[in-house]
């Protein structure tokens, strides 16, 4: 695992390039960013969350003194491998489409009797959800995205997500598409993937959960989308909101077949 000094040095190099290089030198700066990502990817700290998540999955907890090993993530009770790349999906027991995070909260309630107040991101129970997400995602690394569209509700959530993606509003009149519907665009040195295309959508969809070097936290997809809405100056989006699950459905369906990367590491 990289030492903090190496991470800081690499990050400092990228920051320095981003504020000092002219536009004509963008290519060199992007190469430096790629090199930085290679350095910090060797020994991703998200592995610590993965280890905790596996322990939480198998550990008996809560009023029911039970593990999560009978939790159905969509592929059958206890099946973890391949679950991450096939969510969000419809679950008949709750009569709605759930992503991985909301499904884990349901399983904690059903099997352990733990009422996770996951809407508050810094609570201990939500940290447990994040650890579980990190481990479950790691079990599907390298597997192709295959978000289902067989149930009418799954199709509806995809269509809602597509509409939300292109919906412009707020004080800046922004939409997700404002930044993510064109090729070869960036904000400063941050590349902006075109999420209307298969490969970029699949890579973005499976880039979360990710360890963020800048704040030493693991962010799952729900948190990533909440922060996107914050940057657009939209109203606060609570954990488990249908709009975040709809956007995940849109990205997942668009990114069908792309091999999963998660958990990844970000600046």
Can you give a write-up of this model?
- By secondary structure, this protein is mostly helical.
- The chain has three domains: 4-41; 46-138, Cytochrome c-like domain (Cytochrome Bc1 Complex, Chain D, domain 2, Orthogonal Bundle); 152-266, Cytochrome Bc1 Complex, Chain D, domain 2.
- The chain has helices at 4-20, 26-41, 46-58, 100-112, 124-138, 152-166, 176-180, 198-205, 221-231, 242-254; strands at 89-91, 96-98, 185-187, 190-192, 210-212, 217-219, 264-266.
- The chain has a three-stranded mixed β-sheet with strand order 6-5-7. It has a two-stranded antiparallel sheet with strand order 1-2. A two-stranded antiparallel ribbon has the order 3-4.
- A hairpin with a 2-residue loop joins strand 3 and strand 4.
Key phrases:
three-stranded mixed sheet, Cytochrome Bc1 Complex, Chain D, domain 2, disordered N terminus, two-stranded antiparallel sheet, 267 residues, mainly alpha
Q: Secondary structure elements and their pairing?
A:
Blueprint lengths: L3 H17 L5 H16 L4 H13 L30 E3 L4 E3 L1 H13 L11 H15 L13 H15 L9 H5 L4 E3 L2 E3 L5 H8 L4 E3 L4 E3 L1 H11 L10 H13 L9 E3 L1
Parallel strand pairs: 5-7
Antiparallel strand pairs: 1-2, 3-4, 5-6
